[in-house]
Amino acid sequence: MASFYTRDGDRYVASPSTVGPWDPKLQHGGPVAALLGSRIEQAAARADARLAQFALQFLGPVPVAALEVTTQLERPGKRIAHWSARCSAGGREAVRVSAWMLSVKEDRNPLVHLEDEPPPPMPAKAIDTYFPAVPHFGYGDALEWRFPEGGFDRLGPATCWARLKVALVEGEPVSQLSRVLAMVDSANGISAELDVSTYLFVPVNLTVSLAREPATEWTAMRAVTSISSDGVGVTRARLFDERGMIGVALQTLYVEKR
Question: What is the pTM of this model?
Answer without folding.
Answer: 0.96
